[in-house]
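Try this one yourself first.
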C-alpha cells in the first residue's frame, strides 16, 4: 500500500523564498542531508522513479526547496543539500534563513528524513538540522545511506553508534541502514515516511497558479503526452550542482 502512495509522485514546484511555499496544509515530510549524501537517490528509490528527484540537481535549483506531490495533499519536500566546502558566507546565511525558518515554522511538516552517508554521520550541519527540529519535537528518521559500501558488521556498528549518539541529541529520532543501489532498507524507509505522512489529514491536492512542470520519468509515463520540461534538456541524471 505504501508503495502505491510513492509511485503516484509527481514534481510540483520549486521555491527559493518562503513566500512562495504552497499552502501550509495537508502533510509533508522533508528530506535533508549533506550534498552528495545520497538524498536524491534515496527519494528516487523510495518512489521507484529513477529520475524524479534530479530536478534538484538542475543548475539554479540546487538552493531551492523542491516539492513533490503524492495523493491527498501530501508532499515529499527535498531541501537543498548542505555542506559545500566553498560556499560563500552569503549563500550559507541564505540557506540558514530558508531552511531554518521552514523547519521551525511549517505546520504541514510532519517529520524529517535525515540522509547521512553511513560512513560519516552526524556532522555539525546534520546536528544543526536536529536543533532546528527540536523546538517542534517533530520525529526525525535517519537514513544511513550507501550502506552497501560497508560490510554488514561495520554497517550494524555504525547504526548502533549513530543511534546512541542520536538518542542523546534528539530522543524522537530513529535510525536505519539504507542503500539506494543495493535496495537495502527500502521498505523500512517507506514505512517511516508513510507513518509521518499519515499523521496529517488528507486534503485536496494543491494546484499551483502556473502549470507545474513534468519531470520525465524513466518508467510509467502517464497516459497521453508526458512533456519533457524544456529546461531539463541536456541535464543528465547524476549531474552535480554548480556550486
Ligand atoms: P545528493 O547530493 O545527496 O542528492 O546525492 P546523490 O543522490 O546525487 O548521490 C551522490 C552520489 O552517491 C552519486 O554518485 C550516487 O550514485 C551515489 N550514491 C547514492 N546512493 C548510493 C548508494 O546507496 N550506494 C552507493 N554505492 N552509492 C550511492
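Now uncover the answer:
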Amino acid at each position: 500500500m505504501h508503495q502505491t502512495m510513492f509511485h503516484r509522485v509527481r514534481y510540483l514546484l520549486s521555491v527559493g523564498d518562503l513566500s512562495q511555499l504552497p499552502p501550509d496544509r495537508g502533510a509533508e515530510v522533508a528530506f535533508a542531508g549533506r550534498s552528495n549524501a545520497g538524498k536524491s537517490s534515496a527519494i528516487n528509490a523510495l518512489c521507484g522513479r529513477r529520475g524524479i528527484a534530479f530536478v534538484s540537481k538542475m543548475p539554479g535549483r540546487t538552493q531551492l526547496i523542491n516539492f513533490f506531490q503524492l495523493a491527498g495533499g501530501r508532499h515529499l519536500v527535498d531541501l537543498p543539500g548542505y555542506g559545500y566546502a566553498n560556499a560563500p558566507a552569503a549563500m550559507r546565511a541564505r540557506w540558514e534563513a530558508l531552511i531554518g525558518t521552514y523547519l521551525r515554522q511549517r505546520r504541514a511538516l510532519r517529520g524529517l528524513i535525515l540522509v547521512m552517508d553511513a560512513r560519516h554521520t552526524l556532522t555539525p550541519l546534520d546536528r544543526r538540522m536536529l536543533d532546528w527540529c527540536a523546538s517542534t519535537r517533530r520525529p526525525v528518521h535517519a537514513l544511513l545511506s550507501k550502506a552497501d559500501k560497508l560490510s554488514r558488521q561495520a554497517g550494524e556498528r555504525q547504526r548502533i553508534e549513530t543511534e546512541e549518539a542520536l538518542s542523546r541529541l534528539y530522543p524522537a529520532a530513529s535510525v536505519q541502514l539504507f542503500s539506494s543501489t543495493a535496495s537495502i532498507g527500502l521498505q523500512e524507509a517507506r514505512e517511516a515516511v508513510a507513518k509521518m505522512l499519515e499523521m496529517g489529514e488528507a486534503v485536496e491536492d494543491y494546484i499551483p497558479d502556473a502549470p507545474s512542470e513534468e519531470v520525465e520519468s524513466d518508467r510509467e509515463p502517464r497516459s497521453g503526452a508526458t512533456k519533457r520540461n524544456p529546461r531539463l534538456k541536456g541535464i543528465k541524471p547524476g549531474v552535480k550542482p554548480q556550486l
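Discussion: Residues 33, 35-41, 81, 145-146, 148-149, 179-181 surround guanosine-5'-diphosphate (CB under 6 Å). The chain is about 30% helix and 20% strand.
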